[in-house]
Amino acid sequence: MTYKTDEIWEDKWVNTTCGVCYCGCGAKVRVVNGVPVKIEGIKESTMGGDGAGLCGKGAAGLMYYHDPNRIKKPLRRTNPEKGIGVDPMWKEIEWEEALEEISTRMKKIMEDDPNKILFTNQTMRASDGPHNHAYFYAQAFGVKNNGNFIIGGGSLHCGNAAHMLGGLIHGAWSIAPDWRYTKYVLKWGSSKGTGSGHSAMTNARLRADAIRRGTREVVFDPMGNFAGGKATEWVPILPGTDTAVGLAIANYILNTRGEIDELYLKAKTNFVYLIREDGTFIRHEKSNKPLVFDGKEGKIKEFDDNSIAHEDFSLYGEYEYKGEKVRPCFEALKQHLKQFTPQWASQISTVPVGTILKVAKDWVDNAQIGSTITIEGQSFPYRPVASVTFRGSQGHSNGIHQVAAIDLMSQLVGAEDVPGGTMGWPSKRRKYPGGQYERMPRIGEDGVLIPAVFYSHDPWPVHIPSVPCDNNGCVDFWTHCTLSHIPYVKERDYIHEKFGMGAKPEMIFGIAANFIISQSDWDVAVENFKDCFVVQMDLWVNETDQAIGDIILPDVSYLEKDCWSSEIDAFFFSGSPSNEDWFVHLQQPVAEPIGESRFFMDVYIDVAQRVGVLDKFNESLNNYYGVTDEALKIKPGEVLNWKQIGERYMRWVYGDDKEKVEKQGYATWHKPIEDVYWRWNTQSRCPVYMEFLLHDRRAVEKIIEDTGFELEMELDQYTPMPDWFVPTSHKELDSEYDLLAFSYRDILHTNNTTFQNPYVDEVSKMCPYTFTITLNRALADERGLADGDIIWLENRYGVKENGIVKTMEAQSPRVVGISGQGGLWADGRPIARGKGSNFCKLLPSYLRHYDPITGNIETAVAVKIYKDQGR
Amino acid sequence: MPRWGMVIDVKRCIACWGCTIACKEEHFLPPGVFWNRILIGETGKFPSSRKLIYPILCNHCSDAACVEACPTGATYVRVDGIVAVDDKKCVGCRACLVSCPYQQRTYYDQTVKDREYFPGQGKTAMELIGEKLYPFKLGTVIKCNFCMERLEEGMKKGLVPGRDEDASPACVNICPVNARIFGDLDDPDSVVSRLIMEKKGKQLKKEFGTEPAVYYID
Predict the structure, then answer these.
(1) Are residues A483 and A629 in the same domain?
(2) Given CB atoms, is A811 within the 8 Å cutoff of chain B?
(3) Alpha-carbon distance B43 to A224, whole Å?
(4) In terms of residue numbers, what domain contains A849?
(5) pTM of the predicted model as reported, rounded to 2 decimal places
(6) Residue of B11, B26, B175 with shortest CB distance to A212
């Protein structure tokens, strides 16, 4: 076996950023005779796995370039009828014709109301481009409030509640255990470190080392597969009931054990703020600052009064202020938690009482309250316990209470953003040495952090719900969502009418989104968007394009992309949560674009120029990157493509090292220890007592009354302390619809994009669970079902999906598991067609299925199951 | 002379399939051919069941059943312990396929060669260039070779297998969780030898007596 080197005129490696999921691992690509043939990680980088590691789907990314099903020219629908199962009768058109039609339509709509144009991005092929720029692109068109920025590819994968609390508590988009120092990790519907979530392989590498070091991991999950299957202990739990267990653990910590980190609670939380009987803060009449009780002096003072030593803030007691009885929030919490016994939590969650008590005890025992650790010469509190949640547990109609309850146990023992605890990340980005671009969180009113960058509107300060809404997502009313799900709600038109949203959507300009099949009930999604003129930029014609697309523009894959900005922020999805240096990878083209495909940022610029809003977009870019050097700014009237903009901005971001960074394909610089555990030395306070929800409730109730809004909303959820609310899916259980279907992320798949990858497809078939519907074995026996049977899942609204049974022991006997977004049918993606089952379609999309606070859709659903009669 | 071997740390492995796909790319393996796979299953009863993950590849046995079964001497154990196939001697009788207790061998014929990753749509540029870069002989048996070309090329440059990327198997390099460790089993101080000693490394189906060079620790 020999290499035939005589025919090989080029054999090189090019550094770039992986674009198969949103994690942005460093990737290098072997290119032979101009053809990409292999992908590996970049050994030097901390973005990715151990010593050049990359996951399977990352390695398989090659196929994005090689797929003959890629669209090569713009396509135009010629069949005016739309819908699932309708042939769009595509016709290839020229770019000029496509862009002229798009911009002409946009201009016409803008004369009326730009809010009639919806913009979507993609998180299914991020870090495949500067995905967050889509929303200030929308602003350039005059779209208000980011609420027309509808969720794209990620859809039900996204986490409004998780991000809301990440922002409020950590000033960050995400959370992860501090793997380097933690000893005991609780995971709740999260696969951090076992293949999913942000910085997936970075976390996997750090976790593997932690586990080898002896860190114990307890995973609460309906199934023992990716996270649970690797855990020290897997604890089966019913979807959406994590709150109950979390609150029982918090009750144990505070009321049974009584071992808490008082100093942390006094110095870093708003639990010391004084509240009235009705739960609202008392505030200083002039400064409007919340008040606290200085136990040493016996006086009520403003919360940031420097004369109070941290240990002298009162957590307990009852005081009088101007004739009113007041008490610290913490006193209220202590009383509130007493109702949540392990027996009560066990009945709701199916987690045995003994397990709850054992975990609670282990949690406190491992927290090492009072201990410190010295790292790089600096002393920090040492709390080696971490509790992390993500998409699974927070994706419920009680989402914010789920994440708040899980966060509470960390707050009580002070295990937040200190060595060994739960880390928020990414939250900071220091300047590259010699460069200019920097992102730092700030401290806002009431001492609460304002994240440096957030995907949509900042979680703080809170915007009180108001109407009329001026955007399709109605974020004026659902003020805590990061990305609004409201455009997908069945009663959307009613909501718009009642809340004064006058702009009925007329056009969608999207990037690789597949929201028709990846959010909830397909028919509702088609109904809500079919009257729009839908333009998408993508690699293939996906299900959304086939059902409702009008013009599809061929995008380049990450392997053909020249994108200096892809993870420049290292902000939303990437970066190491641990004590590791900063790494930012560039996306460098390894091959020529396929056909006439064009990078969506260049198409954005082209369209903006045609519509006449390019100057506005350029100005927002200057502002986003904070460019103050006149020579590097984009000036009014200038038309630069994305690469040309990069020529200037790279100089701004990396200074004299621009060329060096370009040459090596990434930038790395030192992250000092004070930027890892930065919050400890910040005078900020976590708003764990969510007082703002009381004010929200008043505003919401008034709006409902004023507008005569009649849809069901669980307003009791607007309460400041985490509490138990039954998820909608549980409310819909009865003797007929008796099982809860849930979805989970398979390590092999990024939503539905990867279903079209033949490498991934091959190995998916070797994995017993990826393309099947999983059932607990005893449950299957009871129902007369066995491996290989075809079954139907049907919800109470008559929506059905079928699939192949795979029985397993490691699954709760009251649930049905589906790995995400299969069951695909687009003609443009033949590898994906017919693989797996689609979970999303089973999710009912009535407003009552949404979390009233964050707008999260309930991602479990009551179903009945039955065997297909054909088999 | 070293004897190359591998330790797979199943405690670290999260079954991301990086090894499987990197191996396919390294050797331009056609659809349906795998030199690296992962066996996934579970043991025990609810709620105490455990997920099992076993990444498997050729065990490069020192007393290999396939070598014994080969009538022409095409399959042989090299001095460095790698079980290799000399495609000039292989007559495609497939006795080795049947004899391998680990099912790690594939018969490469025209039907395998003709397979396309995008069925019915022609071979991609990558598949075509792969046939030039890493050709297989029709009518022979192919299998994992511990990336012996990488090892040999790397060592020529003074690199050390198991330590340096360019002298180590592709599946070891790609692993994001460092679950694969490669090295010299004959060197008692090598990382693999120490891990086998300290963590009581186990061979798969030891009872067959083939002396695998791949060990598992958990």
Answers:
(1) yes
(2) yes
(3) 12
(4) 728-867
(5) 0.96
(6) B11
> Scanning every residue of chain B, which has its alpha carbon at the shortest distance from the alpha carbon of A39?
B22
Total domain count, chain A: 3
- Non-local (6+) Cβ contacts of A869 within 8 A are none
Has residue A501 been placed in a domain?
yes
Residue A167 within any structural domain of the chain: no
Q: Give the residue from B154, B191, B186 showing the smallest Cα distance to B169.
A: B154
CATH fold for domain B4-217: Alpha-Beta Plaits (3.30.70)
Residues 306-335 of A with CB under 8 A from B: none
Length of chain B: 218
Question: Domain check: are A37 and A86 in the same one?
Answer: no
What is the edge-to-edge ordering of all strands in the sheet holding A75-77?
A90-92, A75-77, A549-554, A533-538, A507-511, A117-120, A149-150
Residue A217 has φ and ψ, to the nearest 5°, of -130, 120
Q: For an interface test with A, give the residue of B13, B14, B57, B124 to mutate (most A CBs within 10 A).
A: B14
Domain boundary among the residues A627, A646, A673 is at A673
Any domain includes A131 = yes
Q: What is the sign of the dihedral through the CA atoms of B67, B73, B79 and B82?
A: negative
Full pLDDT tens readout for chain B, 218 residues: 899 999 999 999 999 999 999 999 999 999 999 999 999 999 999 999 999 999 999 999 999 999 999 999 999 999 999 999 999 999 999 999 999 999 999 999 999 999 999 999 999 999 999 999 999 999 999 999 999 999 999 999 999 999 999 999 999 999 999 999 999 999 999 999 999 999 999 999 999 999 999 999 99
Whether A41 and A112 share a structural domain? no
d(C-alpha A514, C-alpha A826), whole Å: 11
Q: What's the CATH number where A813 sits?
A: 2.40.40.20
CATH code for the domain in which residue A515 is found: 3.40.50.740
Mutation test of the interface with chain B: which of A763, A777, A807, A831, choosing the one with the most B Cβ atoms within 10 A? A763
| B76 bridge partner residues | B84
- Do β-strands A666-669 and A582-585 pair in parallel, antiparallel, or remain unpaired? antiparallel
The answer to whether the beta carbons of residues A355 and A373 sit under 8 Å apart is: no
